[in-house]
Amino acid sequence: MATTPTPAAPNDLLKLENQLCFPFYAVSRQLTKAYQPYLQVLGLTYPQYLVFLLLWEHEQLTVKELGKQLLLDSGTLTPLLKRMEQKQWLSRSRDPRDERSVIIALRPAGRALESQACDIPNQILAKMNLTPPELDTLRAQLHHMLTQLT
Amino acid sequence: MATTPTPAAPNDLLKLENQLCFPFYAVSRQLTKAYQPYLQVLGLTYPQYLVFLLLWEHEQLTVKELGKQLLLDSGTLTPLLKRMEQKQWLSRSRDPRDERSVIIALRPAGRALESQACDIPNQILAKMNLTPPELDTLRAQLHHMLTQLT
DNA sequence: CAATGTTTGATTGTGCACAATCATTTTTGT
DNA sequence: ACAAAAATGATTGTGCACAATCAAACATTG
């Protein structure tokens, strides 16, 4: 006999359901969609919301630092930040001490959004029905994967 | 006294590092980047690769079915599939029995890519240093989240 | 059968995401 | 001081991703 038990036949490796990558791709997009109704009333997109998370904490950051934290390059950030500048949420200005750097600084209209956003994380978390221990292991594994991939 | 232990001060909820959403967003993009060098030699993008995973398994699917599996709408799929059609990887044709449906069928050039792609999943998995039990719980949690979010 | 509603893709417009390239500024080595 | 190298953003071009709208084909109901 010697039929292999469940050896993952060569083709099975290429089935969508057996991929680890696809659930990440799908969950990431569905999560963004879950935020959308909350962010829409504030007039901002999900990547813009991530920029705000950093600015609400640090008040001021260079494009370089934003890119390092968010793992985004200037080709993504520059137009995104220009749109946020147009809405008076932040200012873009060169660092006088190093004219290569562009400093992104929170403006009052951007600061004002913080209090309207502070309930969003819990609203989203509630939708996922994760127990605290599940959430902990999930956080740990995501962090581990991110370090492996960067 | 009565200082709360680590009550997650209101502001902490809005710190990037405390978000669950960001790791998903970041891991998803970094995973796509990890695939990129392997997919580039085949001339395809990550979403196109996902379409192929389904076509290699099913040979023929409607746009509707592709969208249901991948959680993508026609605004994303139609131009993507047209690019894949131009490369002779697949054909797009109306179903004679229901003219609303468009049938996507694998063509020889698309079938030929399968054997060149079958090692990719393991190459990526190897980069992540996950133990089999870690991988199992991760799969389970991702699946759980996806059902919660859809 | 005719009117109504539903299903299915296509189209349009906006906003990322990223590779590749370029220009400017700063730093470093001599 | 000066040339070479590195750092930092901006720009350009391609390809998703998705909301909103539209059009055609099918199904349903009276």
UniProtKB/TrEMBL annotation, chains A, B:
Transcription regulation listed as a keyword: yes
Cellular location(s): Cytoplasm
Keywords: Cytoplasm, DNA-binding, Transcription, Transcription regulation
Pfam families listed in its UniProt record: MarR (PF01047)
PROSITE patterns documented for this protein: HTH_MARR_2
Residue ranges annotated for the HTH marR-type domain, each copy included: 17-147
Biological processes annotated in GO: response to stress
Entry's Gene Ontology molecular function annotations: DNA binding; DNA-binding transcription factor activity
Record-annotated membrane-spanning stretches: none
InterPro entries given in the database record: HTH_MarR-typ, MarR/SlyA-like, WH-like_DNA-bd_sf, WH_DNA-bd_sf
Keyword Transferase carried by entry: no
Primary location class: cytoplasm
An annotated GO cellular component: cytoplasm
SUPFAM superfamilies named among the record's database cross-references: Winged helix' DNA-binding domain
The protein's name in its UniProt record: MarR family transcriptional regulator
Lineage: Bacteria, Pseudomonadati, Bacteroidota, Cytophagia, Cytophagales
